[in-house]
Design goal:
Length: 402
């Protein structure tokens, strides 16, 4: 495996300067809105297609603006390469189907985003790829689920929406012991708070739509790693030939957004921590639970503090009562919010709230939802950049109506 590059600059400098490619001495990164490229001669075109000339061929393959985004994010992640995609789910799909073939097996944490569960379970099974979904917090379950044909472990930490925190280093060690790779969805933690590649993961995947854009504007995704063979032999052919290419315009927006990612994420974490503590005052009535990775009452708080720099921007609350009562209270709460928007997105500068059971995880079976902790009373809060006092005021008032 190739060692990640050593950077002479700190993470915020890399976020501002990484991947810079100036064509006309411009201070702001250039936006190259082009689908194709002209060649000086047919000989040059032939050399490009044979790989003898590393210039651009077609923007489905590569593009100067997209390349800037990939190089900047790789520098921030501490990876040797980054492969972008049109959306986070395109990245997840490519990371799975690009590596796995009919007859292969994967082990995945059952606590997955609804669309990730669909790809890993329903879609992969159509192509003869089998999967077992386990309690990812139980380290023994990973090894027990391994088969002779197991090729990949897949997890997200913290999980969406239950905020389970999984021990990346320990799970990577188990995967490698059995000759499997580990793929980590790091979207909740971002490259600011958590570095799975440093803990032994083989690949990291992101929805750049979330914190990386951070302002609800564009879609994007990315896969990162240090093993050049995975990129060259598996992921690049899959991405180029199936076509989930990142738009150059979206890449340009994301390049500019990465400059402030560190500042935004840390400010969101400060807000989220204060809000989680403030919401705990409502435990018992009407709330059954408040979940945040850095709170002492989180089941995996020790792991979270060991492998994350802060607790993240997401807080979940769960309303008390039976199923019908809890969901009714959750809806009353969401309808009473005045400042916080009801939206299924997250990682935005604006604070957002959603009811996962009826939105992001609505297509899962009730059994699968409950195994992930997606109960009728669960509400996911994505905390933004507003004044924490204003957010707490909005939340307190909405809780008073329940």
């Amino acid at each position: 495996m190739t060692k990640p590059p050593k950077h002479p600059y700190g993470p915020r400098t890399r976020a501002v300067r990484g991947g810079m490619n100036r064509a006309f001495q411009e201070t702001s990164e250039g936006l190259f809105l082009t689908s194709g490229y002209a060649y000086d001669s047919p000989e040059q075109a032939a050399a490009r297609f044979s790989g003898e000339d590393d210039g651009y061929i077609y923007s489905r393959f590569s593009n100067p603006t997209v390349q800037m985004f990939e190089e900047r994010l790789a520098a921030m992640e501490g990876a040797t390469w980054c492969a972008s995609a049109a959306t986070g789910m395109a990245a997840v799909t490519a990371a799975l189907l690009g590596q796995l073939s009919a007859g292969d097996h994967m082990v995945a944490s059952r606590a997955l985003f609804g669309s990730c569960r669909y790809v890993a379970d329903d879609l992969c099974s159509r192509f003869g790829i089998e999967a077992d979904f386990i309690d990812g917090t139980d380290l023994s379950a990973w090894g027990e689920a391994v088969r002779p044909n197991t090729k990949l472990f897949f997890l997200e930490t913290p999980s969406n929406p239950g905020l389970e925190v999984l021990d990346v280093q320990a799970i990577a060690d188990i995967a490698h012991l059995h000759g499997a790779r580990l793929l980590v969805d790091n979207v909740f933690a971002t490259p600011v708070l958590q570095h799975p590649l440093e803990m032994g993961a083989d690949l990291v995947v992101y929805s750049a739509t979330k914190h990386m854009d951070g302002q609800g504007r564009v879609l994007g995704g990315a896969i990162l790693g240090n093993d050049e063979a995975i990129l060259a032999d598996q992921l690049r052919p899959f991405l180029r030939n199936t076509g989930p290419a990142l738009s150059p315009f979206n890449a340009w927006v994301l390049v500019k957004s990465l400059e402030t990612l560190d500042l935004r994420v840390r400010a969101m974490c400060d807000n989220a921590s204060r809000i989680a503590d403030g919401l705990a005052a409502h435990l018992g009535k009407p709330l059954r639970a408040v979940t945040y990775p850095f709170r002492d009452d989180h089941p995996q708080a020790e792991i979270a503090r060991r492998q994350m720099e802060a607790g993240g921007s997401v807080v979940t609350i769960e309303f008390a009562g039976d199923s019908e009562q809890a969901q009714a209270q959750a809806f009353r709460f969401l309808n009473a919010l005045e400042l916080i928007d009801v939206s299924n997105n997250l990682g935005d500068a604006k604070s957002l709230a959603t009811h996962p059971r009826t939105t992001t995880h609505s297509r899962l079976s009730e059994e699968a939802r409950l195994l992930q902790g997606v109960t009728p009373g669960l509400v996911r809060l994505s905390i933004g950049l507003e004044d924490a006092a204003d957010l707490l005021g909005d939340l307190d008032a909405a809780l008073q109506s329940c």
